[in-house]
Amino acid sequence: MSSSDHTHTHTGTVTVTVYKGAGPITETTSSTSTKNLAAFAKKTAFAKTLCGGVIMEVTNAEQARIAEVAGACAVTATEHLPSDIRSRRGEVFRMCDPQLVQQIRTAVRIPVFAKARIGHFVEAQILESIGVSFVDESELQKPRRGAAAVGEGAAMVRTEGEVGTGNVVDTVRHLRAVMGEIRVLSNMDEDEVFEFAKRISAPYDVVWKTKEIGRLPVLNFAGGGISTPADVALMMQLGCDGVFIGSGVFKSGDPVRCARAMVRAATRYTDPGGLADLSYGLGEAMSGLDLEDEGGVRFADRTE
């Protein structure tokens, strides 16, 4: 997302954007555009320092300190964990209170994200003014929205399933959808790439770059329903650059131990024996939610 307003519809990818005045990366002809490109390169380089890490959603300074001690690469400040938001469906959740963001920033030395509503660039401007490292636009979109989000200035994207459920199934489904479309894209000729870019409303140069390198040109983290070290390792083995963890840690029986285990799982994801060690004695995991519940309709298939 750039610093202009956009209209979005609901449906599985979440963008995380640094707001430093950078416009879409397709603007390449003026001195202003050169400045924008430099700003975009700077913020994506900063984002790449988080590669291979775990980002935890926290609601207070104490949780943020737990995340930092556990080895999280960053935290996202939010007033409500995903599971709490799910239990209060129908309410409007605005940006995090700046006072809470400042308390969390004071408590830790790692980067601090803060959430803004979809397309609400004034909330993003406020959060930037108080010094957050990243603005987290929790944007529930179709998986193919990733390339379009990059064109709007996103420094990273989050392929997300059903947050607050303790159930990783839809996160896996959405990530595989992204990977599948990239594989199809890699076999397209130039005309097909152009038509594909038009169809998904994404800049041609971003789509072509994705074809060339075989992946999105920014980091792609996974989030939603990740509640155990095995869940973390699963997403890493499927090709994610890192994971977001929300309720999975702080709704578990032992948040401190669980947080450490999940962070370590992100670096030991190819070692089944090591993952077994990390999974010992963690206590009860967050309760999982059957996604076929509530009238037999999959939550992720809703469009309201």
TrEMBL record:
Residues 41-141, 150-222 form the PdxS/SNZ N-terminal domain. It catalyses: aldehydo-D-ribose 5-phosphate + D-glyceraldehyde 3-phosphate + L-glutamine = pyridoxal 5'-phosphate + L-glutamate + phosphate + 3 H2O + H(+). It holds the Pfam family SOR_SNZ. InterPro entries: Aldolase_TIM (IPR013785), PdxS/SNZ (IPR001852), PdxS/SNZ_N (IPR033755), RibuloseP-bd_barrel (IPR011060). Pathway: Cofactor biosynthesis; pyridoxal 5'-phosphate biosynthesis. GO terms for biological process: amino acid metabolic process; pyridoxal phosphate biosynthetic process; pyridoxine biosynthetic process. It is an enzyme of class 4 (lyase). One of its GO terms (molecular function) is pyridoxal 5'-phosphate synthase (glutamine hydrolysing) activity. The keyword Transcription regulation does not apply. Gene3D superfamilies: Aldolase class I. Belongs to the PdxS/SNZ family. Catalyzes the formation of pyridoxal 5'-phosphate from ribose 5-phosphate (RBP), glyceraldehyde 3-phosphate (G3P) and ammonia. The ammonia is provided by PDX2. Can also use ribulose 5-phosphate and dihydroxyacetone phosphate as substrates, resulting from enzyme-catalyzed isomerization of RBP and G3P, respectively. Also plays an indirect role in resistance to singlet oxygen-generating photosensitizers. This is pyridoxal 5'-phosphate synthase (glutamine hydrolyzing).
